[in-house]
Amino acid sequence: NGLATAIVGRPNVGKSSILNHLLQEDKAIVTDVAGTTRDVLEEYVNVGGVPLKLVDTAGIHDTDDKVEKIGVERSRQAIHKADLILLVLDASQPLTAEDKELLTATENKHRLILFNKSDLPAALTISDLPDVAASDVIKVSGLTGAGMEDLAAKIEGLF
Ligand code: GDP
Ligand code: MG
């Protein structure tokens, strides 16, 4: 068992890369093709001493693809069922409509917001998220692994 934790974010923000860092192995498929993660992937991992059941999701976006549609529906269910949300944003890009939709969809959940791609020049700051406490935002990089210890410490601090 473990605390149900959903990694959410629009396609290509780096959810699977972050999951792989947390798992320290390459189970999720990482590519630069949007929509690669079509299904939901569950993994059990200890982060900051807290046992998590991590659920990697396909994101929430409009699509005509039949298989992708099922992934999006499962992502909505994963958010609904989760005890903790890790909402991943691409901090090298301005917020998109889908980011804002996810911020709203998760605002009443236990939530940490990951500013991913922090190895790139920043396009996002905490002031772009007026309803979010600075202490709930963590800068990370799914590419270099930067910030993963901060994330673990934050999760540990929640419980
Ligand atoms: P997902 O669709 O949200 O699961 O995103 P992926 O983990 O598959 O990553 C999408 C693309 O972004 C891949 O080309 C990754 O190598 C790249 N990527 C992920 N995290 C980072 C990061 O922190 N920095 C940079 N520069 N690229 C990243
Ligand atoms: Mg993915």
TrEMBL record:
Residue intervals of the TrmE-type G domain: 2-159
Superkingdom, natural source: Bacteria
Binding site for GTP: 12-17, 31-37, 56-59
Places the protein is found: Cytoplasm
Binding of K(+), residues: N12, T31, V33, T36
Sequence positions that bind Mg(2+): S16, T37
UniProt subunit comment: Homodimer. Heterotetramer of two MnmE and two MnmG subunits.
Family note: Belongs to the TRAFAC class TrmE-Era-EngA-EngB-Septin-like GTPase superfamily. TrmE GTPase family.
Function of the molecule: Exhibits a very high intrinsic GTPase hydrolysis rate. Involved in the addition of a carboxymethylaminomethyl (cmnm) group at the wobble position (U34) of certain tRNAs, forming tRNA-cmnm(5)s(2)U34.
Protein name: tRNA modification GTPase MnmE
Parent-protein residues present: 222 to 380 of 460
